[in-house]
Please model this.
Amino acid sequence: MITKTKYILLTITFLCYSCTTYARPKYTPKSDSGISKTSVEISTNPDGLTIEQQNVKNRLLMDNQVGSIKHLYIISPQTGNVLLYSTVKGKVTSSNKRLTPRTVSTNSDVYDENEGFLVTIGSKNKRTAEVLQDDGTYGDSDPYIFWWDTKGIYHQHFLTDGQIIHVSDQPLRINPTQIKLNLVKP
Model:
């Protein structure tokens, strides 16, 4: 028979043992070829930002600069010829961008942080799992890369099915590309 004292000691021992952390061996992910994951310490600028973070910040500032003019080129991937050139007032915007979220929950009266962010649509409060983007919109942009060249000219380059889209904050000189195919008899 277990006495009350033995029961208390066993309970305390069990609780102490179960509360201790188990020292698991450190796991390092490896690729199929056996290469281990590595990490690198990245330098930051005086504002504490990496180059990538500074680029995103600068793009957001440039894209939202009142009165800015950009230059849009739609280029044929087959010939390299410019199919359309246009100046752009402000910025090019994807049709996927919206001012309201695409999906909302119907139960907004009960607060539950797992149900998402509170949004007002019309006069009704709703919840959404969508996150408001840095530019104040919902939805995704078409994928593109962006950069500033050594002259400080801003570029956005989209690769799509059937055309190449390029946006710049300065006009570009684009020379037509000629593709020559020679038929060779076997």
